[in-house]
Every structure is written in C-alpha cells, then in structure tokens.
Amino acid sequence: MTSAVKDEHAPELRGFREVQRLAYDCAEAVAARLTPGVTEREAARMQRDWLRERGVRDWFHLPFAWFGDRTAFAGFKVPVQFFPTDRRLEPGMAFILDMAPVHKGFTADIGYSGCLGLSPLHDRLLADLEVHRELILREVRERRSLREIYEDVERLMIKQGYANRHRAYPFGVIAHKVDRVAERRRSPHVFGFGTQSLKGLLSDALHGHRDGWSPLWSPYRFSDHPPQPGLWAVEPHLGFRGTGAKFEEILVVTDSNDPEQSAFWLDDDLPHVRRWAEEKVAA
Amino acid sequence: MNLPGARERRVRTGGIELCVVELGDKEQPTVVLVHGYPDSKEVWTDVARQLADQWHVVLYDVRGHGRSTAPAPLRGGFTLEKLTDDFLAVADAVSPDRAVHLVGHDWGSVQSWEFVTVKRTEGRIASFTSMSGPSLDHFGHWIKQRMTRPTPRRIGQLLGQGAKSWYIYMLHTPVLPELAWRGPLGKQWPRILQRMEKVPAGDYPTPSLPEDAAHGAWLYRDNVRARLSRPRTDAFAHVPVQLITPTGDIFLSERLYDQLELWAPQLVRRSLPGKHWVPRTRPDQLASWIGEFVAANEAAQEDGRPVQDTAPTGAYADRFGGRLVLVTGAAGGIGRATAFAFAEAGARVVAVDRDAEGAARTAEMARLIGSPAAWGEAVDVSDEQAMEKLAEKVATEYGIVDVLVNNAGIGLSGSFLETTSEDWKNVLDVNLWGVIHGCRIFGRQMAERGQGGHIVNTASAAAYQPSRALPAYSTSKAAVLMLSECLRAEFADRSIGVSAICPGIVNTNITATTHFAGADAAEEKRLQKRTSRLYGLRNYPPEKVADAILKAVVRNQAVVPVTPEARGARLLSRFSPGALRGIARLKPPL
After folding, report:
1. What is the pLDDT of residues B212-230, one digit of tens each?
2. N or C: which end of chain B has fewer CB within 10 A?
3. Could you report the predicted ipTM of this complex, rounded to two decimals?
4. A160 vs B: CB within 8 A
5. Residue by residue, what is the 3-state secondary structure of B340-356?
C-alpha cells in the first residue's frame, strides 16, 4: 500500500472500493425498506442479512442502526449504548446505518445518514458535512498532524453550531485504520467486533507504538503525528439537539510526494457525494 | 367604548336585548370575545383593537351587564343554558354561515366551556381560547377526584383552591354582595384593581360596574352549586382549545388544569406571567396568541393537520411560544445555546453578535428547530449608537422584546499591575457597558409598554469569587451582578423580572479569545490553548447553562449559579468569604 498511487485498476484498491460500494448499496437498499415502526434491531438485522446473502462472512464490526436522538448519541455514556435497541422509527425521524463488512479479504467501514420523510434540519446537517470532507482531505495532503486536523474539524463543527459527536466514540476517534483481513473458515466476533480485524488493529497499534504513530485518529497525544500511509475509515459526526448525521468512508493515504497522490478519497461515487453534486446542479 | 370603527347593534333573544359590537373586516373569520365577572365587554378593548387588524372581532355584553338588559326575574335567568342561547343568537347574527372562534376570560371562559361542550353548538364554533375560567363540570370532577382518593398532595391542592375561591362563597350569600357592590365596593373597585392587579386606568371599569356586579352574582348562584355537585360526565370539548394560564392568578390555581387533555383532546397550553386581569394587563401577548391560534385553525381546516401537532415541543414551550427573545453574543457558546433553547420552545429570536456570519447562522439554525421567525443582527454591544439603532429597528419590525438576554462578554486575564488602562477599557466596554446599554435601551421599551418582560444578564462565578488572575474580568462581572440586583428591585413594580446568571467554567470559545495581559503574542497563544484545553477537559456544556437561563426566566430567579463549582463558590462567598479570599491568593496553574 505504501507505494500505491491513485490508480483505478490497482487490484488492492479495487477490492476495497468494491466492498465499500457493496456496503453503501446495502445501506441504500435497507434505508429504502425502512418504514414507521421498524426497530433498530430489525434494521441492523436487515443489513446483516443483505450482506450475508452477498457473500459477507466476516465483519470489522457488526452493523449498527441508530434512530431519532440516538443519531446524536444523546446521553451515551457506556459503549453498550451503541448497540441497536428496540427504538422504533417514526415519521420525520433521522437514522444512521453503520456497517463494516469484510468481503474477499477486504474491509470497508461506512456510515449512511437518512431521514424518514422530509426534515429541513437533517438536510442542513448533511449539506454541512461537505466542507468537512474537503477540510479533512486538504489538511491530510498538507501533512498536518492528525490531532491538529481533528481539532480543526471540531472547530469547524462548533462554528457551524454543532456538537462534535465522534467524541462519544471509543477513544473519541474520528477515524481508524482498515486493512486486509485474512479469510478464515470461522470468524468469531466479540462485542460486535470481528476478531480478525481487531487482531489487525492491535498489531498496527503495537507496531505504531514502536514507531510513534497510532491506528486511531483521536484528539489525544497519541495522534500527534502526520497521517500514516494506509487506508483510514474517516467518520466526522455532527450532532445538533437530538439530530445527528455523519458519513464514513475510506481515505487513502500514500507516501507519494505529489499532493494529489498523497491522499485521496477511495471513491467519489457515493450517496452523500452524489447528493451534494445534485444539490449544486439544482441550485 | 374607545374603539374606532366599532359598529354597535342589538340582538334580541329570550326576552332580553344584547348589546353587540363589531370591528374589522366582516369577510374575515369571526372572533367572539366574552367577558367575565364583574366586567363588561370593555375589558377587551385593547385586545379587540389589535385583533381587528386581521379578523372580524365581535364583543357583547353578557345579559345583565353593561348595555345589555337583564332578565326578570334575576333568579334563574343566568343559567348556562340561557347563556348558551345568547351566544348562539349573537353568533347567528354576526356570522350566520361560518363557525366562529371563541375567546373567554373569567366567567366568559366558564360559560364558553359550556358552549364548546354541548351538542347544539357543534359546527358553530371553530376554536376556543380559554383564560382564567375553568369548566364548572371539569372543576366538579376535579374536586370529586380529590375528595374520593385523597393523598396529602391532593388535599393540599383542594385546600389551596378552596382558599382561592373565597369570593364564590361570599357571592352565595343573599343581598349582601349586591349592597356591597352598589355601595363602597363599587366605588373602590377601580382603585383596588389598580393597586392589586396593576390594571392601567382607561375606559375600564365602566360606570355600570355596580349594577353589572350585582346582576352577575346570579351567574354564581344559578350555576355553581348545581354543577359542582352534579358535574356533567360528557363535557368533552368538540373544538381545538388553547388554554392560557396566568401564573399569578390569585383566584385560580394552575393545578386546576392538570388533566385537561382528557376533556379537551386538541389542547395547546400557554402560560403567561401575570395576574387575573390579563386582557387589561397583557393585551399584546393575548392578541398575538389568539391571532396565531385562530390563523392556525383556519389553516388546519384547509389542509387537515391538527393544530397541536405543529406546536413546538421544547422545554417551557407553553411559556415562550411566539414571544420575542433577544440574545447578545449569540454567535457561539452560551448565547448561541440560549438562542437555540428559546427557538425550541417556539420563541421568535433576534440573535445579536459582532460576528455577522455567526449571528446569521444562529438565526438560520434557530428557524430549523422550531422558531417561527429568527433574525441575525451584527451589532457591537459596547457601541451605544448601534444599540439604539438596533432597538429602534427591533421595535418597529419585530415588536417589543419580551425576554432580553445580555450575554455578550469577553475574557481578560492577567495580574492587576500588568493590566493596562486600554485592557480595562476594553473589558468594561463590552462586559459592563454592553449590559448597561442593553438594559437601558431595551429595558426602557419594556417598561414603557407596561406589559411585563424579563431581563437576563450573564455575569459569572467570578463576580463573587475574587482571583488574582482575573481582576478586570471579575470586576466587570461583579458590576453586572450588582446592576442586575438593583435593576430587579426597580423593575419589580413593572412586572419585569431580572436575573443574573453565573455560569462558572463552561466549555465555550471565550478562552480561545481571552486576552492575557502582560503576555506576548506567542505566550498568549499558548495560554489560550492551555485554558481552552482545561475548559474542554471540564467539558460543561453551554446547553446546560441555556436550560438554567430558561428556568430562571420561568421562575423569575434573582441569581443563578450554574455549574457545581459556581454554586460551591456562591455558598462559600456567603458563609465563609475568608476561604474564598484564601483561594484568591493561589496562583492558577497555567
């Protein structure tokens, strides 16, 4: 990966792009099937079944679904609150689907925000995420330290009037590394996380600790280093008084000297990116 | 009656003649205002005048009151059934083929409850706004419930309302009330109203008061005992109801309306700081709520969406819906969170800040979460002329501010010897003069309107906690605290509340822009970063301060320390100031 460039045909990137597309297809398919009364558990199961039918056997983490004020992680204190509950979807409610399937040895981790019906507030949040996607890419290309970029993202959120909700994630991460995962016959998971992927993350953490970097992108000192080459699943998450929205997708970081090649989003044909483009055309 | 363009007519019904007055455009939906006891239709003068701009407004003197004739004999002439006949006769005369919107105050509301719960008026009433007058049937059930299943709380409620209802027992005595009203009480009544209720003088009460009050005693005698002992079980409202509860009503407890949803399934609640005679003392607010409710119901009839579904749901929505709130320093931190909290409660918000873009953003987001209207204004609060201009613009374009939050402030740290006079000037200009300008200019408008209001000043825990690190900042905030307390004393007469909020250490942007006296640019940057990080670690959210501000307005609290450390310091400042002085000598770990 370290010498990879933005090449549509690089087999490795193609594999990641395919699984990311697959996950987003799943999110769109499930979102289209959500109706009033569906619970978070049911939505999570719908994602799991959809992906299983298409050959997914292992997970970085099992699918999540958050409805209503849980999209803004209102009152989240302990990690078990992330798991799907019996909260039912109601008209006008925001929802987030989040899944991280492993397919043919490639991992993706995606987040999809939607709303059942029309909500001008939710539209605003989604629209405001666009500048975050641009900001993150620009500053990664400038090789700013991950902690600094994190702080800039947070500052922008506060300027927009939002609360930073990825602070509520474990270690307050905005992103984490993803990698290839060895395919095994059995793929057990603990607390919703695939053991194979956790093993990868753990070994990254060990190596990184020796070399002074971390596979977690957080506001803490261990993220005070320039972006490490590799694939990062980035998830800026906005919260505003009981409504939340985020996207999550893979950012490719390489050691190339060309700024264009040094960092790029793995795929620019994703639902939220298409949405922004459509809005611009409409405007 | 002091109403330009009023058209008077007489409506005959059941052997009496009612004096009916119409205002406004006849083509518009009709709003019928029913007065209470011991009033005549003149109690509505100010409200009617404002409503007439948009609606067809109808007022009438209830039988035996004002210029309407009294039934003979009086006994049995004031039953709710007969009052319903009167209302239907008026409605048929003024709006024969369209349902009317009904508004009642005091006994006007009591009888209107009868109108909206009986079968024969179905289709004739489009909505009902009730203030200070419960349905006698609901009241009867309320008492029964508390008598049959008493708990200490319920007995308390019963005794409380029982004490407030003293005048009802008095009015049941024969002859005496009439003698009192025709004698000394009738003469003193206007003065009593002015003193107790702060009702402004004007065309009310009318000279017919002693007669009205004497006749009106029969309203009680003909109905109260009968209905309270055998309340109807089918008294369900068949129209949307807006309930406006004055919080300082000495005749009616707010608890009376506890389970009103059961009787009025389409209910919107409002509460208003004021005493019993709100049509005289709070006409602007009533006119705007009535107008809004009528408009919402007219619109609902067209697109079929129930009115209460569109009402805001935030905390204290009953209190702040439709009110005008101005917040300074609204581009971030506590100011922005406060603007959002008011917006969620349905208030109209003016977001003021030096940062035009931030203020506009606050206004835009406020509209998205329930504010019916919000505006961003770029003004520096320390600039007196700019504030004058803002006040003029707000008054002419949006109305008189109901709640003013003087929140804008800047930070300044550093020892006294290193603080220059320029530093002093800057911090006092914004933190103290900003508040003075706000209170002076907007406070005057509030006082001149004479319909109450509230001012919130953001002070700080530093106002009572001395510190060697914040001499200038603490001084400015202590001044704000004292100013608020003095103003509170002065404005109490005018029903304008004043609260000082002392937040404590809250995670806002103030630390990132605090000036550190005596530090060079690099050192200042480092200190800003470091304090921001410390405040971030403390991580007390500005939203909680905003909640405290709304609560302070609702409860009219004088001084509100918010974070635990602010509350602790406040306690120490009162009981052990020496300890605080000791803490003040410690060097902050920066």
Report:
1. 999 999 999 999 999 999 9
2. C
3. 0.89
4. yes
5. HHHHHCCCEEEEEECCH
